[in-house]
Specification:
six-stranded mixed sheet, 20 helices, alpha/beta, about 550 residues, 15 strands, UDP-N-acetylmuramoyl-L-alanine:D-glutamate ligase
């Protein structure tokens, strides 16, 4: 029977290895979620509440504990120890062997092992290992560490499976909460690091008194406008700008400390905000000579509480503009245009599709981009861009306003605009074989979503398809705005609508149905992977597919 005892001991070891693997992957997953939530305890906690049954306390945890207590309290006397080991290990391997928190797909925004993440991971890993390591030691040796107390151990087998399985399952279940403890441990370190990098950035800017700082904020369009400003100003000036969506204090400090050189004449910064006071924090690092406000929408309404609070926060960039500087404002947004009254010592420049000092007209779309006219005073020039959307016309107007304020001619900017490429995932034109793809997958919002659907509806070269999970982070307005989005989709008379996530897109479906749209053309799938497969089975040469928003992994259903 020695072979049988050896086999059962191997089963115990396999169980430990399976649980160790699952615990490691689960810990990594929650670190990833915490990073996606911007290392914010409050937002991470709300995510845990929203995903309590699917990710935090899963059915596997509950069912396994039920098995443990049923075995221990009711049938332990009738089941041999070897049978208990086989039962527990089989259930453990079956339930915890797989790890499909990403639905079997690669994550859309991978975990980045930044120095901050590494600092967080060390205490988090130690905390996560304490209970599993302790119960494994006790279950195998029968000895309680740091005491003289011993517990009864199995006569024939290597470990007590009841203690071992309960300890590993409990340790696995409470992993999400160790993030809070680890975060508190590292909080003083992060505060010191932040102060150090901010001090370095301010010192470097103080050593460059002739540098012009251009700062952009707004609910939507910040990144696109930033890159347009960068590309226009690069016709005459040496420009340094933050890459991608770098719009946080540490993102800005990183660019100033690492990328800004003595020969640069202009620094273009994007300033983001999720809470009141965020813009002031960024302006404490770099006060703008020229401030740009794209709009005041309802992005991050959950954290701000109201659109008026968003407007107050965005207006801080105008209040903090250096004396004698310039403010470029969206003339089509009443909350933005009102910011011009906050200062009487700034040059206020307005730009808009419908009003303002700088205006646009005659917008036309095509498979290679769009064409439109820009007028400043009596001068009008035609701009051609490989970018789509009327909101991008507005972004260009704001960029032209900055360029004009720094002495660039309209003709020069029209030539430069032809070379501008779309920001990745923002109405970006692509080709997949002979199918045209409009990639608007980054951070959908009500204005951008409406513009994207309008843009798609302008195409007549093939069948028009939209793939979308709708919009998030809109607070109490989320269902309302998604329903309105659905109404826009229904009114556009598209050929196929693919909705991603049954619960997430319920309001969109209701909005589409209210327009009398043929609901046989609407299909709902569980993931982006399924959406792509559905699209590929449907599309033919010449068709156009719009990807409108792509929610992060933390919002997968």
């Amino acid at each position: 029977m020695n072979w049988y005892f050896d086999f059962v001991d191997i089963l115990i070891l396999v169980f430990v290895l399976v649980m160790a693997r699952h615990t490691l992957l689960r810990g990594r997953y929650f670190l990833h979620i915490f990073q996606q939530q911007g290392y914010k305890f409050n937002e991470y906690w709300h995510w845990l509440i929203d995903n309590w049954n699917q990710r935090v306390l899963t059915p596997e945890h509950i069912l396994y504990n039920i098995v443990i207590f049923v075995m221990l309290l009711f049938i332990s006397d009738m089941v041999t120890e070897s049978a208990a080991i086989i039962i527990f290990t089989m259930f453990g391997i079956f339930w915890f062997g797989p790890f499909n928190y990403y639905g079997g797909e690669d994550s859309k925004k991978p975990l980045v092992l930044t120095p901050r993440m590494i600092r967080l991971t060390i205490p988090f890993a130690l905390l996560s290992l304490i209970l599993p390591a302790a119960v494994t030691y006790i279950a195998y040796t029968g000895h309680l560490p740091f005491t003289r107390f011993n517990i009864e151990t199995p006569e024939f087998y290597a470990a007590d499976i009841y203690l071992l399985s309960f300890g590993w399952i409990l340790g696995n279940a409470i992993i999400p909460f160790f993030i809070f403890i680890a975060g508190l441990f590292t909080k003083p370190i992060e505060a010191y690091v932040h102060r150090h990098f901010k001090k370095m950035a301010r010192k470097k800017l103080a050593q460059m008194p002739n540098l012009t700082v251009v700062a952009i904020t707004g609910s939507y369009g910040k990144t696109s406008t930033k890159f347009m400003i960068r590309d226009l100003l690069s016709e005459r000036y040496a420009v340094c700008s933050t890459p991608g969506s770098y719009n946080t204090p540490m993102g800005i400090c990183k660019v100033i400390n690492n990328d800004l050189e003595a020969y640069h004449q202009v620094l273009v910064l994007e300033m983001g905000a999720r809470y009141e006071g965020n813009i002031d924090e960024l302006c404490d690092i770099a006060e703008p000579d020229i401030s740009v406000v794209t709009n005041v929408g309802i992005a991050h309404l959950e954290t701000f509480g109201s659109q008026d609070a968003i407007a107050r926060t965005k207006s801080s960039i105008v209040k903090r503009t250096k004396k004698g500087g310039k403010a470029v404002l969206n003339a089509d947004d009443e909350r933005v245009i009102a910011m011009g009254d906050l200062r009487n010592d700034l040059e206020i420049i307005t730009a808009g599709l419908h009003s303002g000092d700088i205006r646009a007209g005659n917008i036309e779309y095509g498979p290679k981009g769009m064409e439109f006219d820009i007028t400043i005073g009596e001068e009008t020039k035609t701009f051609n861009m490989k970018i789509l959307g009327s909101h991008n016309v507005l972004n260009m107007l704001l960029a032209v306003a900055v360029g004009q304020s720094m002495g660039l001619r309209l003709r020069t900017m029209a030539i430069a605009a032809r070379r501008i490429r779309p920001v990745e995932h923002r109405l970006e034109l692509k080709q997949q074989g002979n199918v045209t793809v409009i990639d608007d997958a980054f951070n959908s919002n009500p204005i951008g979503a409406q513009n994207a659907v309008e843009t798609l509806s302008e195409f007549t070269s093939g069948r028009r398809v939209i793939i979308t999970p709708g919009m998030i982070e809109l607070g109490d307005l989320q269902d309302k705005k998604n329903r309105e989005f659905g109404e826009q989709i229904g009114s556009a008379d598209l050929d196929l609508v693919i909705l991603v996530g049954k619960n997430q897109t319920k309001a969109i479906r209701e909005g589409i149905e209210s327009t009398g749209y043929d609901m046989s053309k609407v299909t709902t799938v569980r993931s982006l992977y399924e959406a792509n497969r559905t699209m590929q089975n449907y599309t033919e040469d010449g068709d156009i597919v719009l990807y409108e928003n792509d929610l992060p992994d933390s919002f997968n259903e």
